[in-house]
Amino acid sequence: MNKSKVIDINNITAGYDNHKIALKNINLSIYENDFIGIIGPNGGGKTTLLKVILGLLKPFSGEIKYYSDEKEHFIGYLPQFKLIDEKFPIIVKDVILSGLSSKKSIFKAISKEDNNKLEKIMEEIKITDLKNRAIGSLSGGQLQRVFLARAIISNPKILILDEPNTFVDKKFSSTLYDLLRELNKNMTIILVSHDLGTIPQYVKSIACVNQTLHYHPTSEITEDMIDAYACPLEVLAHGPVPHRIILKHGGNKDD
Ligand SMILES: Nc1ncnc2c1ncn2[C@@H]1O[C@H](COP(=O)(O)OP(=O)(O)OP(=O)(O)O)[C@@H](O)[C@H]1O
Ligand SMILES: [Mg+2]
Description:
It is built from seven helices and eleven strands.
C-alpha cells in the first residue's frame, strides 16, 4: 500500500531580511508515519526549515503543499529553546491546554474530556506535580517537557520537535524517545537533533540540512553525510557516535 503524502516542499529558497539566504532549493516530500531526523551544523538552517513548514516564515521562492482536511490540529510544534519571563503570569496546566485550541480562551472552563487529556499527558511526561506552577519558575528541562505536552495534547497529524532534548536529563531523554516511537504509530514526526548517538535508533530517515538539504531514506549516519553531503565532522562530534552506526560508502558496516 502506498503511503499518503502529508507535505510536499518544492524548490524552496528562504531566509531573512529579503536577501539573506538560509535555505537554497530545498525539496522534501513528507509521508504519513515518517519519522525524519534533521541534522546539520549550527546555523545550517534547520529551524528555518521548520518555520517554513509551519508557515511562520514566507519563503523567497518555491512552494509548499499540505495534504490535509483538518487545518486546526494538523501540526504540533515544540520550538527550540524558549526563554520565559519569570513573572509571566501563566501556570503549567494552562500552557498545556493552550495546545488544544488557539481559539478557546484559557480562562474558559475546561471540559471533562480536555481535563482527562491533560491529566493523562502530564502523567506520561511526569509533570503532574508541576501542574499549578508558574512557568517562569521552571527549570529548562521542566519547561521543555511542558512544551512537549502542549505540542502533543491535540494529537496532531504531524509533530515537529526542534531539539527537544537540549535540557532534559538522560533518563527523560529515553522516555521521550520511547514516547515518540509510540506516537509515531499514528503521527508523522520531524525531529531536529544533535543527538547523533541516539537518533539513528529511533528515526526512519535522515535529512542533513546545511543551506541545502540531502535526504537519506535510511536512519544510518554514513560517511557520505560527512563527506559529500556537507554535513561536516563537527556536527557528528556533538554527541558520542557509536562506531557501528557509521557506515562506509557502500553501506557496509564499518567495524
Ligand atoms: N530571525 C533571523 N533574522 C536573521 N537571520 C536569521 C534569523 N534566524 C536565523 N537566522 C540566520 O539563518 C541561518 C540559519 O539559522 P537557523 O536558526 O535556521 O539554524 P539552525 O540549523 O537551526 O541552527 P542551530 O543548530 O544553532 O539551532 C543562520 O545563519 C542564522 O544566523
Ligand atoms: Mg535551530
